[in-house]
Design goal:
With 197 residues, this protein is α+β, with helices and mostly antiparallel strands. The protein has 2 domains: 110 residues, Multidrug-efflux Transporter Regulator, Chain: A, Domain 2 (Orthogonal Bundle), CATH 1.10.1660.10; 54 residues, no CATH class. The chain has 7 helices and 4 strands, in the order H-H-E-E-H-H-H-E-E-H-H. The strands form 2 sheets. Strands 1-2 form a two-stranded antiparallel sheet. The chain has a two-stranded antiparallel sheet with strand order 3-4. Helix 1 crosses helix 3 and helix 3 crosses helix 5. About 15% of the residues have low confidence.
């Protein structure tokens, strides 16, 4: 399994999203930078790093799939809450059609020309002036989702549309201990990095 640093992952995401039209409301970056990737990880939208080497976090193709899928959904007008609810626990196989990545994306190189404002689609040059498309909201209320990572590969997503109570992650983790034990017994939890047998 090929692993990348955060900077290398960000470069691969940018290469994979060369055709990305941007989010319909233009309020977020077209391509996630390192800070955005870290934030997505913090809120449970993207998995934690596949491996740590000292203080260096390493990421895999799954992370690339997740990030590209997020941006493709944003381009369709979905909110992060909607994307989080849809992609929580998604397998690589279910992420692939959303991300629409080729089997082996090209590696960014010094020789690869980087997109400039002139080479991007003309509509992207002033994307912030475009009127946002309305997001469907049949109930008339904003949708909030909270995700709490209980263990590697196990994230609880809570629909928070009507509740403003802040969950206690420690109590939820303690209550989920039997579930985590059963998942481990059935070998449904990811193996710790380095454990390939």
């Amino acid at each position: 399994m090929e692993l990348w640093t955060l900077g290398e992952l960000a470069e691969r995401v940018e290469t994979a999203l060369a055709d990305y039209p941007g989010q319909v409301n233009g309020r977020v970056r077209a391509v996630p930078d390192r800070r955005a990737i870290r934030w997505y990880t913090t809120i449970g939208l993207v998995d934690r790093p596949a491996e740590m080497r000292g203080r260096t976090a390493l990421y895999s193709r799954r992370h690339l799939l997740q990030l590209v899928a997020i941006k493709r959904r944003q381009a369709q007008g979905h909110t992060l809450a909607q994307i989080q609810a849809e992609l929580a626990g998604a397998t690589d196989e279910s992420l692939q059609p959303i991300a629409a990545l080729i089997a082996d994306p090209p590696r960014p190189t010094a020789e690869t020309p980087q997109p400039t404002a002139e080479t991007l689609q003309p509509s992207r040059s002033r994307f912030w002036t475009d009127r946002p498309m309305p997001t469907p909201d049949p109930a008339g209320t904003a949708e909030f989702v909270t995700a709490i990572r209980l263990a590697d590969g196990v994230t609880v997503v809570l629909d928070r549309a009507a509740d403003t109570t802040t969950p206690d992650p420690a109590r939820l983790a303690a209550a989920a201990a039997p579930l985590l034990a059963e998942l481990a017994r059935q070998r449904l939890l990811p193996r710790p990095s380095g454990d390939e047998t």
